[in-house]
Structure formats: structure tokens, C-alpha cells
Amino acid sequence: MAGDEINEESLEFSKACAESVLSKLEARSDKFYLPANIYGGDLGAALSLVRSTALFPEFAGQSRLLLTAILAAPKDTAARGVIDGVGAQAYAIAFASAILNEVPAAEKISDALRHQISARQAPRTSADLDLLHGLLGLCLAGFRLADAMARTPDSSLIGCAESLVEFVVLMDDRSLLAAMGCGASHGLSGVALAFFTFDRVGIHPAAAEQALRCLNLERHFWLQLEPTFDPKSDAERSWCRGTAGLTAAQIAATRTNIGISNIFSHPLEPLSPPQSPELLSLCCGLLGHCELMSRAANFIGDTSLNARSKREFELATKVFMSGKFCEISTIGLFRGLSGFLWTATTIHQGGACPSILLLE
After folding, report:
1. Cα separation, 60 vs 49, whole angstroms
2. In whole angstroms, what is the distance from residue 229 CA to residue 208 CA?
3. 258: closest CA among 219, 304, 208, 294?
4. Which Pfam family is one of those matched by this entry (predicted)?
5. What share of the chain is helix, strand, coil (3-state, %, to 5)?
6. 0.85 exceeded by pTM
7. Which of 135-164 are b and which e, b meaning 16 or more Cβ less than 10 Å from the residue's Cβ?
8. pLDDT tens digits, 280-302
9. Cys-Cys crosslink for 333: which of 158, 166, 219, 338, Cβ 3.0 to 4.6 Å?
10. Which of residues 264 and 172 earns the better pLDDT score?
């Protein structure tokens, strides 16, 4: 499914981003920056570069070599979650496998992930439910990797995921909301994103029900605070801590076989663009807004959303090229130049490619 092509100026800018990311990664190939980190490290930048070869095939060979080198680079694997450490490597390998037609370093990472999960015995705490940094994200990455390797998930991975679902089942609504808060990074939307994955792989019969519960709790919180889903601060509009995270989880919910119309009228209902024109990043700004609109266009069959995403992406590139201050100052994925590459590719493919904001 082809999307609305971005204008020539934005396309040239995106290509310049690819060249800049490629150049910087090659320049520090003797010592990569945060090689096990997807958020702001070189792992995320390389993953975005490989993904963008759908748009810029001339960079395919170099980008594949760089991603392979980063995955093989020495690194600290103590971090948990899906954004750093073993979980990030597992997720990156699984994501890239469909592009590379291979699963590089999978055995080593699979073993390390299994060891880390086995070491985290019950009882569970709310910190374990943090998608980016907790056990929840580690489990999600494990299921993604097992799927890429065409393997049945390890029993320790299944048991860990089941224990997280059961932990949420036992929490009352007030305690769950107070412990987790909102957003995809560390809040209820992140729990829902992971639990929808657990449901798809058949891990726990209550996974989908609890995912919906998390969505309902967060949606109710925002409606009490802002009845029109029009938060006053950009933090409250973001993917990481705000209503865009709820949007991501609601888009993911459309892939399930459960009834969702009683919770929201439209997956994009809570999505509000950032108010600050200089807030551009995938995590907190306009690029994330574009990414979610394009992905929703594919899920619900509304092509007008991809056209809107294209216009907003062109605005984002214009703001950046104007030289105005913005938070993008690195080549990283979530808050750097690689975010432009990621979103340009999504728009080019009509939202048909998996999104990092849905942890697909």
C-alpha cells in the first residue's frame, strides 16, 4: 500500500538525515554510542536507517553492515525493559529480521534474555510493569524474538508474562492507576500494549481483558481532566506520558478480536498535536503525531489520515530546516534525526509498516 508521497523538499531533507546518520555511525564504528539502546543510542539509529531503505534503497548495504556491527558490539546487558539492554537487542533483531531476511545474533540474545527473566522471581511490583525499563518490556521483546526465530516461547518467558497479568488482575482500579499513571513509556497504555501482544500469542486468558481495563482507566482519567481530550501541556499530549500513548494502545486494540467500541468511538479520539511548534520528536512531538496517524490509516482504512500525516511531516521538516530551536540535536530515534527517517518511511508505505510506537 503506497502512501501520499511527501514533497520534494521533505524527501531531500529525509535523505540528508539518512546520510548524516550513516556518516556519524560509520565515524564511530570503533566505539558505538549506547549500542544496546533503541531510544537515543546507535541501535535505534541503525534500526531506523535499515527500515528507511524502503525509501532510500541506495543505503541498504551500508545500513545492514552497521546494524550487524552494532548488534555484535560489546555492551552492558544488565538493563531491563524493551528500550535498553538485552530487551532492546531482542526487539531490534526481531524487527530487523523481516527486512534483513535473517535473524542476526539471535541465539546469544535469546539465551541472555532467558537468563535475565529467570533471575527475576516473584513477587511482582509495579516497577515490573514499566514497558520501557521493566520486566514487562523484557517479556514483550522475548515474544517478538521468539516469533522472529519461529520458536515456541520459552517456559520461563511464558511464566513471567502470566505472573504480570495475574499481578494486574489482583490490583484494584485505584491502586493500578496510582501506581502506573498514564502514557506508553511507563504507564497504563504501555501495560495495554504489552498485554495485547500477550493475548495474540495466547499467554493468559485475562490478558486482553486487563489490557482493555488499563485503556478504560486511562481514558476515564483523561476525560475527567480534559473532557474534550485537549490537554493544556505538551507533556500530556505526548506518546511517553500522555494521550498519544493512549492512542497507540487503542490502535493496537483494533488488531484484537475483542469488543472495543464501548470504550472509544475512534482510535484517534485522544490524539492532539503538540502546541509548541519546536516540539518535533517521535517520542514527544509532531513526528510521533504523524507516525500514529499514518499507522491508524492502515489499521482502520482511512486514507485521509495518511494525507494529514504527510502535511504535518512536511511542516515538521520545514520547522527544523528553518533553524529554529528544537529538541532534536542527535541522530537518535526517539528524540533525534532518525525519527524523521522513521516517520518518512511510514508515510511512504501508507502506514503499512510496523511502528516502534506500538512496539510492533
Report:
1. 8
2. 24
3. 208
4. LANC_like
5. 60, 0, 40
6. yes
7. bbbbbbbbbbbbebbeeebbebbbbbbbbb
8. 999 999 999 999 999 988 888 88
9. 338
10. 172
What is the per-residue burial (b if ≥16 Cβ within 10 Å, else e) of 68-103?
bbbbeeebebebbbbbbbbbbbbbbbbbbbebbeeb
Nearest to 288, CA basis, from 228, 232, 356 = 356
Q: Which grid coordinates belong to 167?
A: 499481578
pLDDT of 1 over the 50 cut: no
Q: Which residues pair with 37 in a beta bridge?
A: 84
Which candidate, 310, 229, 212, places its Cα nearest to that of 272? 229
Length of the chain: 360
Backbone angles phi, psi at 37, to 5 degrees: -125, 125
Type of residue found at 47: L
Name the average pLDDT for the chain.
Answer: 91
Query: Which tens digits make up the pLDDT trace of 96-115?
Result: 998 888 877 889 899 999 99
Rg (CA), the chain: 19
Q: Is the pLDDT of residue 335 over 80?
A: yes
The string over 215-241, giving b where at least 16 C-beta atoms fall within 10 Å of a residue's C-beta and e elsewhere, is: bbbbbebbeeebeebebeebebbbbbb
Q: Please spell the DSSP secondary structure of 31-66, one letter per residue.
A: S-SSTTBSSSSHHHHHHHHHHGGGT-GGGHHHHHHH
Rounded to the nearest 10 degrees, the angle between the axes of helix 85-100 and helix 60-72 is 150
- DSSP helix/strand/coil, 84: strand
Bridge partner residues of 84 (DSSP):
37
What pLDDT score does 355 carry?
94
Q: Which of 154, 179, 277, 270 is nearest to 220 (CA)?
A: 270
Q: Read off the DSSP letter of residue 6.
A: P
Cβ atoms of residues 217 and 272 within 8 Å: no
Span 29-62, pLDDT tens digits:
999 999 999 999 999 999 999 999 999 999 999 9
Cell numbers placing 55? 525509501
Cα distance between residue 131 and residue 115, in whole Å: 19
Please tell me the predicted confidence (pLDDT) of residue 278. Answer: 83
